User: Which sequence fits this backbone?
């Protein structure tokens, strides 16, 4: 007698949700196209598409079913490749699996209930496109201006295309060759940074000792201290600029009698390990009787990138008078905090 598994039947209207995003007209400060931005060719931003719904709801799967169970679902799905939209692990105590198909949901649900070990939690959901169809479409997409890479986003049942600064002509050409309901785009439009010297340190007196500020700030996790355990309050930089990590150079610690300071500056994001070069902006230096405030910024890296450790750039800060006993502070932190050595990494 075959063992039975635990499934939940879909509710009426179970289907891939539709996009209901509003349509703003610009990009966010990072350069990524803002949520809901209407794209040339009728395409949708991937982030604007809701994920395929299941009875287990959204969220990460902390408990994973044994590989043998997942492999048996995958093997069954590949036997019905014209309908199989792939599978994923779902959030449920002890683990769960969701299998997606374009049709015959009751048949697939009954088959998996007989196939899987008794007590296995699973769901069968409706999608519009099979994995086979998405793969064929992905392989058919040629070179286009601004196209950085392609993939398949299983939870949105789409081929995803990563673009940086695509031209209208490139998106129009794409719309003529692919079904827009099978594709979503991750589009980044680079933002021109401000011209002239870096000017991001709040004016003296706008930041109180308590941290209250008359300037716009944001919470930055894992910033200057490279720690993901605390939020660092930083000034919101102008569009086209990104934050960097700044530390003392352990081989050239500040000399109170000197009028130059050596610092190490590194990008905080994924940049494929590039050297910043001319992308580094600053330093901006503000001197008072009690402190020296220093700030740097970077023109961000746009596009797909790997995430090795970013190389340090050695930067020299010139002072109008010797450092003396003045504090050396991050000028973009609110309130300003001391520039320190980089913490030892485990």
Assistant:
């Amino acid at each position: 007698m075959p063992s039975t598994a635990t499934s939940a039947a879909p509710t009426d209207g179970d289907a891939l949700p539709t996009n209901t995003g509003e349509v703003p007209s610009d990009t966010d400060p990072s350069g990524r196209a803002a949520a809901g931005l209407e794209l040339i060719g009728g395409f949708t931003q991937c982030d604007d598409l809701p994920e395929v719904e299941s009875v287990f709801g959204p969220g990460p799967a902390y408990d994973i079913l044994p590989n043998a169970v997942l492999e048996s679902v995958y093997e069954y799905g590949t036997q019905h490749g014209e309908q199989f939209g792939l599978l994923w692990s779902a959030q449920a105590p002890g683990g769960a699996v969701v299998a997606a198909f374009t049709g015959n949901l009751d048949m697939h649900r009954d088959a998996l209930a007989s196939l899987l070990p008794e007590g296995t939690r699973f769901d069968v959901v409706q999608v519009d496109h099979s994995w086979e169809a998405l793969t064929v479409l992905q392989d058919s997409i040629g070179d286009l201006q601004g196209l950085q890479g392609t993939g398949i986003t299983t939870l949105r049942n789409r081929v995803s295309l990563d673009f940086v600064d695509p031209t209208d002509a490139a998106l129009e050409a794409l719309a003529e060759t692919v079904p827009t309901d099978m594709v979503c785009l991750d589009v980044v439009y680079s933002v021109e940074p401000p011209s002239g010297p870096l000017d991001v340190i709040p004016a003296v007196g706008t930041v109180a000792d308590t941290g209250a500020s008359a300037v716009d700030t944001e919470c930055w996790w894992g910033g200057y201290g490279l720690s993901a355990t605390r939020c660092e309050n930083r000034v919101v930089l102008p569009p086209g600029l990104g934050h960097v990590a700044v530390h003392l150079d352990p081989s050239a610690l500040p000399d109170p009698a000197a009028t130059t300071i050596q610092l190490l500056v590194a990008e905080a994001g994924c940049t494929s390990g590039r050297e910043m070069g001319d992308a580094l902006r600053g330093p901006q230096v503000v001197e008072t009787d009690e402190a020296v405030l220093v700030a740097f910024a970077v023109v961000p890296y746009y596009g797909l990138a790997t995430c090795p450790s970013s190389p340090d750039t050695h930067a020299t800060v010139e002072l109008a008078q010797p450092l003396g006993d003045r504090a050396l502070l991050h000028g973009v932190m609110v309130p300003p905090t001391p520039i320190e050595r980089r913490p030892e990494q485990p």
Summary: Helices lie at 67-78, 105-115, 131-140, 168-175. The first strand starts at residue 6 and ends at 7. The first helix runs from residue 67 to 78.
